[in-house]
C-alpha cells in the first residue's frame, strides 16, 4: 500500500480527509491498473505500455511530428524515434511528409493500429465490466459518480496556495 506523508512527500498542504481517502483508494487504483494492463496484453497484438500510450496519443492527435509526440509522452527525442521505428516496423504507424512543411514528417496510425486499439479498448471494457458486475448497483452508481467528480476536479487543476 502507498503511504502519503512519508519521506519525499511534498504534499504537506493536502488535508487529512483527502489523505485518508487517497490511502483508501490506492489499492483499488493499483488493482485497476493491473487489470487494465493485463487486458491489453491479451489483445491480438501484444504491445508495451509505451507503445500503447504512443498509439493512443496519435489516435487523439493525428499528424503530430516526432518532437510533439516526445513532448506529450514526456520522453526524449531519441527514445521517441526508436519507439516510432518499432511501431512502423510492426505496421502500426506511417510517416508522411507534411503537406505544407517540406522538412516536417507527420505520424499517422495505420488501419491495423486502429483495429488493435479497438481490440484493446474492447478487452479492457470487458475486463472492467466483469468486475463491476460483482458490485451492487448502488455501489456501481456511487463509483461512477465519484469518478466523474474526480475527472472534473482533475480538469479544474489543483487549488491555489491560498485555497483550503
Describe the protein in words:
The protein is mostly helical and 164 residues long. It has a domain at 46-153: Arc Repressor Mutant, subunit A, CATH 1.10.10. 62% of the residues lie in helices and 6% in strands. It has six helices and two strands. It has helices at residues 16-41, 49-60, 66-73, 77-89, 111-133, 137-156, and strands at 93-97, 105-109. A two-stranded antiparallel sheet has the order 1-2. A hairpin with a 7-residue loop joins strand 1 and strand 2. The model has no long low-confidence stretch (mean pLDDT 86).
CATH architecture of the domain at 46-153: Orthogonal Bundle
Please give the alpha-carbon distance between the first and last residues: 27 Å
Instruction: Name the CATH homologous superfamily of the domain at 46-153.
Output: Winged helix-like DNA-binding domain superfamily/Winged helix DNA-binding domain
What characteristic shape results from the CA principal axes?
globular
Major beta sheet, strand line-up: 1-2
* Overall helicity: 55-70%
Structural class: mainly alpha
Q: Which consecutive residue ranges, at least 5 long each, have pLDDT under 50? A: none
Rg over C-alpha atoms, rounded to the nearest angstrom? 20 Å
- Arithmetic mean pLDDT: 86
Along the chain, the helix and strand elements come as HHHHEEHH
Number of β-strand runs: 2
Largest sheet: 2 strands, antiparallel
Which topology of the domain at 46-153 does CATH recognise? Arc Repressor Mutant, subunit A
How much strand?
5-15%
Q: CATH class of the domain at 46-153, please? A: Mainly Alpha
What is the overall number of helices?
6
Amino acid at each position: 500500500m502507498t503511504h502519503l506523508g512519508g519521506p519525499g512527500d511534498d504534499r504537506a498542504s493536502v488535508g487529512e480527509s483527502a489523505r485518508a481517502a487517497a490511502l483508501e483508494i490506492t489499492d483499488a487504483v493499483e488493482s485497476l491498473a493491473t487489470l487494465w494492463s493485463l487486458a491489453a496484453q491479451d489483445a491480438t497484438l501484444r504491445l508495451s505500455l509505451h507503445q500503447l500510450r504512443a498509439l493512443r496519443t496519435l489516435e487523439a492527435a493525428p499528424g503530430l511530428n516526432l518532437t510533439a509526440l516526445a513532448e506529450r509522452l514526456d520522453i526524449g527525442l531519441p527514445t521517441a524515434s526508436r519507439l516510432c521505428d518499432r511501431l512502423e516496423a510492426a505496421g502500426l504507424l506511417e510517416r508522411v511528409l507534411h503537406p505544407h512543411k517540406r522538412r516536417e514528417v507527420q505520424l499517422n496510425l495505420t488501419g491495423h493500429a486502429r483495429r488493435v486499439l479497438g481490440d484493446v479498448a474492447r478487452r479492457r471494457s470487458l475486463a472492467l465490466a466483469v468486475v463491476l458486475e460483482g458490485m451492487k448497483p448502488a455501489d456501481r452508481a456511487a463509483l461512477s459518480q465519484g469518478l466523474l467528480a474526480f475527472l472534473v476536479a482533475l480538469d479544474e487543476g489543483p487549488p491555489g496556495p491560498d485555497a483550503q
